[in-house]
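About this split. The held-out portion is used to measure sequence recovery: a designer receives only the structure tokens and must propose an amino acid at every position. Recovery is the fraction of positions where the proposal matches the reference. Here is one held-out target exactly as it appears in the evaluation file.
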């Protein structure tokens, strides 16, 4: 599993012009899944996101009251554009594999006590965020 994590002042995701998830201060986690990923990796990724000390004053979502996590599925994290001009998505897991694992990340984050908002799996989403810093990090589990 892969996640691009961005520290944000605020973020929201829209589907068909309707806001389906939003947070204030916290993290946006764009989560990608490949074929061999497991629920154990989803749990590990959730723990990492929750405890990652990248918020202001080197604190984590676990340490900042009201800090949230906006989780958005992102199959394009497994795109490969090394050859030609069109990326291939062969390394990205199909929805039947990826959706439950992205949901497992969300579930584990909530079990850890995080306030979590989400996009809609497989939907055409518009993600609007204000990157704080800017600060962006790539995580792999």
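Reference sequence for scoring:
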């Amino acid at each position: 599993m892969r996640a691009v994590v961005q520290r944000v002042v605020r973020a929201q995701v829209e589907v068909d012009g309707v806001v389906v998830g939003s947070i204030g201060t916290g993290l946006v986690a764009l989560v990608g899944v490949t074929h061999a990923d497991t629920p154990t990796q989803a749990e590990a990724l959730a723990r990492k996101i929750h405890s990652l000390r990248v918020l202001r004053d080197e604190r984590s979502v676990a340490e900042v009251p009201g800090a949230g996590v906006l989780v958005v599925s992102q199959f394009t994290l497994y795109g490969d554009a090394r050859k030609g001009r069109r990326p291939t998505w062969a390394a990205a897991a199909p929805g039947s594999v990826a959706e439950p694992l992205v949901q497992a990340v969300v579930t584990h984050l909530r079990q850890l006590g995080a306030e979590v908002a989400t996009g809609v799996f497989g939907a055409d989403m518009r993600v609007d965020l204000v990157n704080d810093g800017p600060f962006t990090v790539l995580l792999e589990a």
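Annotator remark: The chain is about 20% helix and 40% strand.
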